[in-house]
Write a structure and sequence with these properties.
Number of helices: 13
Order of helices and strands: HHHHHHHHHHHHH
C-alpha cells in the first residue's frame, strides 16, 4: 500500500481535461485497474493535502466504476463532504441527496442531511443575499431536527436554525429601516410588523417595536405607538430601544400603555395578559 500511495502522490495535479496527468494516461495505468479501496484512499489523501476538488473526483470515480460496492456508498458521503469543502455547494447537495435517497436508513444518512442543509446555510452569511437560500436552509435544518433528533447533528442543526431564522428577521429590519429613512412609513410598518408577528423569538423584536413607535408617531397614530411602547416596556425594559421609545412617547405627553383595538393591542393581550380569545 505504501508503494501504491507513492505512485499516486507522484502523479501530481491534473488539468481540466486530465490529459497531462500520467495517472490517467491510458499508456500508463488506467484508474479502472485500481481497487475501490485504493481509489478511496487516494481521495482521503487529497483531502489531507487540502485538495477537496481532487478528492471529490476520486470519490465520484468509485461511484462510477464500482457502483454497487460498499465502497461506493462510503465514497458517496465523502463526495458530498469533499464538494462542500471545495464550496461547490450544488454538487455537495446533489451527492448528499443521492445518499439520502439510496441509503435512508444508513447511519450516515443524518450526516448527509446535515451536509445538505449546510450547502444552503453556509451561503447566507450576508444579509443582502437571496433570502430563498435562507428558507431552503431552514427547511433542510428542520429535516435534520425532525428526522434525526437523536443524532449528533440535531443540536448543531437547532443552533443553525435559530441563526437562520434570525437572519430572515434581520433582512426584514434592513428593508424596514430603508423605508423609514425615506419617510415611507406604511411600508416600513409592514416590515416591522412581520418581525413582531413572525420573528418574535429573534434578537430583532425590541428594535422592531421601537421602529413601530417611531413610524406610528410620524403618522400621528398615537394609540398604536403607545401600545408598541407598552409591549417594549413589559418585555424589553432593559434595552436601549425601550429607553428611546420611552423618551419619544413621554416627550409628547404620552404613556406606554396599550390603547385601542389594533393588531398591536391584540399581541399585547395575547403575550402579556394571556388572553388568546
Amino acid at each position: 500500500m505504501t508503494a501504491m500511495l507513492a505512485l499516486l502522490v507522484a502523479c501530481g495535479g491534473r488539468d481540466a481535461g486530465r490529459t497531462t496527468n500520467s495517472f490517467f494516461n491510458p499508456q500508463e495505468i488506467p484508474l479502472e485497474t485500481y481497487t475501490a479501496e485504493q481509489i478511496f484512499e487516494r481521495g482521503e489523501f487529497e483531502l489531507q493535502r487540502r485538495q477537496p476538488d481532487e478528492a471529490a473526483f476520486y470519490f465520484a470515480e468509485i461511484e462510477r466504476i464500482y457502483p454497487y460496492s460498499e465502497w461506493a456508498k462510503r465514497a458517496l458521503i465523502m463526495q458530498a463532504f469533499a464538494y462542500h469543502q471545495d464550496q461547490d455547494y450544488p454538487n455537495s447537495r446533489s451527492a448528499a441527496q443521492r445518499f439520502i435517497d439510496f441509503f435512508p436508513d444508513d447511519d450516515d444518512a443524518a450526516y448527509a442531511q446535515y451536509l445538505l442543509a449546510l450547502s444552503y446555510y453556509d451561503q447566507i452569511d450576508e444579509v443582502g443575499r437571496d433570502q430563498g437560500l435562507t428558507f431552503q436552509a431552514l427547511q433542510a435544518l428542520r429535516a435534520v431536527i425532525e428526522n434525526y433528533p437523536d443524532s449528533d447533528y440535531a443540536r448543531s442543526a437547532i443552533l443553525k436554525f435559530d441563526l437562520a431564522f434570525d437572519h430572515l428577521a434581520a433582512k426584514e429590519m434592513e428593508i424596514g429601516r430603508y423605508y423609514l429613512r425615506r419617510d415611507h412609513f406604511p411600508a416600513a410598518i409592514n416590515r416591522f410588523r412581520v418581525v413582531v408577528e413572525e420573528f418574535q423569538t429573534t434578537t430583532h423584536t425590541a428594535e422592531a417595536l421601537h421602529r413601530l413607535v417611531e413610524s406610528y408617531l410620524s403618522l400621528g397614530l398615537t394609540a398604536e405607538a403607545q401600545t408598541a411602547g407598552a409591549i417594549l416596556g413589559h418585555n424589553y425594559r432593559s434595552t436601549e430601544w425601550y429607553e428611546d421609545s420611552y423618551r419619544l412617547l413621554t416627550g409628547r405627553g404620552l404613556t406606554l400603555t396599550s390603547i385601542g383595538d389594533n393588531w398591536l393591542s391584540a399581541i399585547y393581550r395575547q403575550t402579556i395578559k394571556g388572553e388568546w380569545l
